C-alpha cells in the first residue's frame, strides 16, 4: 500500500519504518526540515533500540522515503497516518493545533481520489469527527477518517509496533475495517487481536489504558509512602500483591513518579475531558496529584537528610523518564534538579542517552559526567532516578571512595539495602523504612 506518515517523532518514525518493513511504500513527513535532512543521511534524531538498522534497511530497499513536502506525500498515498504531537495546554486541555493544521493541509492537498486518514496521535473523543469536518470543508474528494491509537512504549517501540498485543481500529466503514486489517495482519501472526470498534470508543480506549497504568503507579507510590511510615518494606508488599492473578506483577513498581510525553499529559487531558462534560474525574485528578507530589520525593529526602543544602554537591544517575530512551519530557529528574538548584546545590549528572536533551534544558547550570563515576568526585550524595541496567550493579567500593559522604537516594529501589550498609552507605529508598 502507498502510505504517508505525518510527524516523524517517537511514534511516526517507528510506525512509518515498521509499515515499510512489512512491504508498504512509506513517505515519512515532518515540518522540521533539519530532522528530514538528517534522516535522509541515516541520522536518527531519537534513541530507540533497533530503529537505526530498520530505517537504514528500508531506505536502502527503497520502501522508506523522508520528505518535508506534505502536499506531494498526500497526493502519492492512499493511507495517510497522523502522528503529530498533542501536548498539554497550561490548563491541562489538549493542544490539537498540530492535528487541525495537518487536517487542513491534507484537505488542501487532496485531488479526486479516495483516501483514508488514520489518526495515531492520542486525542480526545470527538477529534476524528472534527478532522473529518475540516477536511470536508476543503475537498469534495471521498475519504474516511479512522482512529488507530498507538500503544508502543519508548525504549521498546520497535518490538511493540512489530509485535503488538492488540491493534485498535475505530471506524464506521466495514470496507475500511477490512483494509486496515489487511495492513496489520503481518504484525499479528501469532494471533493477537485486531479489535474493530466505533471511532469514539477507539479514541477513549487509548486514554483509558494510560489512565489505568498511571493509576497503578500512583496507587503503588501512595502505598510505598505509607510503608515508610508504618515500618513495612514495599518491595515485600509488592511481591505479595503481584502474585495475585487479579492484580498481576506489572506496573506496580513504586518510584519517583511517572513522566514522559504520554502518561502525565494524558491523565491531565482525561480530567479536562471530564470537565468539559461537567463530570468530576475524582480518581484521575488524584492520580495526577499523587504523581506531582511523588516527583519531589527524592528532593524532600535529600533536604531532610542534609537540612541545609547550600553548596552541597549531589550526583544524579539517570535523567530519562525511563530506561532505554533519551526522552526527558516531564521526567522526575527535571523536577528534582530544578529543586536542588533552587537550594544552591551543585548538581552533577550522568545518563547513557539523555545528556544531549538535558543540555538543552540546563545548559551550564549543571555538570555533565562522561561516565557515571565522573559525577561522583567529592559529592555529598548520589541519587538514582532512572533504573538503567548499567546502574544496577556498580562498583560500590569505588563509589564510596569517590564520594565525600556515603549517602545514596535510590529512587527506583534497585539496590539491596543490606549490601549497601556493608559498604558503609546510608541508604534511602522508596517505601523502605
Ligand atoms: N511517545 C510515545 O511513547 C507515544 C506512545 C503512544 C502514543 N503517543 C502519541 O503519539 C503522538 C505523537 O507523539 P510523539 O512522542 O511521537 O511526538 P513527537 O513530539 O516526538 O513527534 C511529533 C512530530 O510531529 C511533527 N509535526 C508537528 N506538527 C507537524 C505538521 N504540521 N506537519 C508535519 N509534522 C509535524 C513534529 O515536528 C515532530 O517531529 C502524541 O499524540 C502522543 O501522545 C506517543
Give the total of beta strands: 14
**Tally of domains:** 3
End-to-end CA span: 57 Å
**Counting H and I runs of at least 4 residues, what is the number of helices?**
17
Rg from C-alpha positions? 23 Å
Based on the model shown, name its key terms:
433 residues; alpha/beta; Rossmann fold; N-(1-d-carboxylethyl)-l-norvaline Dehydrogenase, domain 2; 6-stranded parallel beta sheet; 14 strands; 44% helix; 14% strand; binds nicotinamide-adenine-dinucleotide
Describe the structure.
The protein has helices spanning 10-21, 33-40, 51-60, 70-76, 97-109, 127-138, 157-162, 174-184, 199-230, 234-242, 263-276, 282-294, 297-306, 332-342, 355-362, 396-402, 417-422, and strands at 2-6, 25-29, 64-67, 79-82, 115-119, 143-147, 167-170, 194-197, 313-317, 346-350, 367-368, 381-384, 407-410, 426-428. With 433 residues, the protein is an alpha/beta fold. The termini are far apart. The chain has 3 domains: 2-197, Rossmann fold; 206-290, N-(1-d-carboxylethyl)-l-norvaline Dehydrogenase, domain 2 (Orthogonal Bundle); 295-428, 3-Layer(aba) Sandwich (Rossmann fold). It has 17 helices and 14 strands. The strands form 3 sheets. A 6-stranded parallel beta sheet has the order 3-2-1-4-5-6, sandwiched between helices. It has a 6-stranded parallel beta sheet with strand order 11-10-9-12-13-14. It has a two-stranded parallel sheet with strand order 7-8. Helix 5 (97-109) packs parallel to helix 6. Bound molecules: nicotinamide-adenine-dinucleotide.
Note the topology:
Layout: E1 2-6, H1 10-21, E2 25-29, H2 33-40, H3 51-60, E3 64-67, H4 70-76, E4 79-82, H5 97-109, E5 115-119, H6 127-138, E6 143-147, H7 157-162, E7 167-170, H8 174-184, E8 194-197, H9 199-230, H10 234-242, H11 263-276, H12 282-294, H13 297-306, E9 313-317, H14 332-342, E10 346-350, H15 355-362, E11 367-368, E12 381-384, H16 396-402, E13 407-410, H17 417-422, E14 426-428
Parallel strand pairs: 1-2, 1-4, 2-3, 4-5, 5-6, 7-8, 9-10, 9-12, 10-11, 12-13, 13-14
Helix pairs in contact: 1-3, 4-5, 5-6, 9-11, 9-12, 11-12
The structure holds nicotinamide-adenine-dinucleotide (NAD).
Amino acid at each position: 500500500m502507498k502510505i504517508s506518515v505525518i510527524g516523524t517523532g517517537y511514534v511516526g518514525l517507528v510506525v512509518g519504518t515498521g509499515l515499510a518493513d512489512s512491504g508498504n511504500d512509506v513517505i515519512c513527513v515532518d515540518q522540521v526540515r533539519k530532522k528530514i535532512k538528517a534522516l535522509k543521511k541515516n541520522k536518527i534524531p531519537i534513541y530507540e533500540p533497533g530503529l537505526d538498522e530498520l530505517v537504514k534497511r528500508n531506505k536502502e530497499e527503497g520502501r522508506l522515503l523522508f520528505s518535508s513536502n506534505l502536499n506531494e506525500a498526500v497526493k502519492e498515498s492512499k493511507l495517510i497516518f497522523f502522528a503529530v504531537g498533542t501536548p498539554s495546554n497550561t490548563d491541562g486541555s489538549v493542544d490539537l493545533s498540530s492535528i487541525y493544521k495537518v487536517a487542513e493541509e491534507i484537505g488542501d492537498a487532496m485531488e479526486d481520489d479516495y483516501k483514508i486518514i488514520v489518526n495515531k496521535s492520542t486525542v480526545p473523543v470527538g477529534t476524528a469527527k472534527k478532522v473529518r469536518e475540516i477536511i470536508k470543508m476543503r475537498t469534495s474528494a471521498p475519504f474516511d477518517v479512522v482512529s488507530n491509537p498507538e500503544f508502543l512504549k519508548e525504549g521498546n517501540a520497535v518490538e511493540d509496533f512489530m509485535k503488538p498485543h492488540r491493534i485498535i481500529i475505530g471506524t464506521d466503514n466495514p470496507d475500511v475495517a477490512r483494509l486496515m486489517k489487511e495492513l496489520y495482519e503481518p504484525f499479528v501472526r501469532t494471533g493477537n487481536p485486531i479489535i474493530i470498534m466505533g471511532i469514539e470508543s477507539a479514541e477513549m480506549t487509548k486514554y483509558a489504558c494510560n489512565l489505568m497504568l498511571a493509576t497503578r503507579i500512583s496507587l503503588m507510590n501512595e502505598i510505598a509512602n505509607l510503608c515508610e511510615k508504618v515500618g513495612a518494606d514495599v518491595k515485600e508488599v509488592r511481591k505479595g500483591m503481584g502474585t495475585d492473578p487479579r492484580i498481576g506483577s506489572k506496573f506496580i513498581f513504586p518510584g519517583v513518579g511517572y513522566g514522559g510525553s504520554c502518561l502525565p499529559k494524558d491523565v491531565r487531558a482525561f480530567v479536562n475531558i471530564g470537565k468539559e462534560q461537567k463530570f468530576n474525574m475524582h480518581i484521575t485528578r488524584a492520580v495526577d496529584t499523587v504523581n506531582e507530589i511523588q516527583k519531589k520525593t527524592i528532593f524532600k529526602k535529600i533536604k531532610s537528610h542534609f537540612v541545609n543544602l547550600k553548596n552541597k554537591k549531589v550526583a544524579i544517575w539517570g535523567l530519562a523518564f525511563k530506561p532505554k530512551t533519551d526522552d526527558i519530557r516531564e521526567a522526575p529528574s527535571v523536577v528534582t534538579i530544578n529543586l536542588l538548584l533552587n537550594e544552591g546545590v551543585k548538581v552533577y549528572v550522568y545518563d547513557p542517552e539523555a545528556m544531549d536533551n538535558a543540555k538543552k534544558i540546563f545548559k551550564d547550570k549543571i555538570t555533565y559526567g562522561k561516565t557515571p563515576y565522573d559525577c561522583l568526585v567529592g559529592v555529598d550524595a548520589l541519587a538514582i532516578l532512572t533504573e538503567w541496567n548499567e546502574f544496577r550493579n556498580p562498583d560500590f567500593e569505588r563509589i564510596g571512595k569517590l564520594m565525600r559522604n556515603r549517602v545514596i537516594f535510590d529512587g527506583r529501589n534497585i539496590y539491596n539495602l543490606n549490601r549497601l550498609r556493608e559498604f558503609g552507605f546510608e541508604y534511602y529508598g522508596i517505601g523502605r523504612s
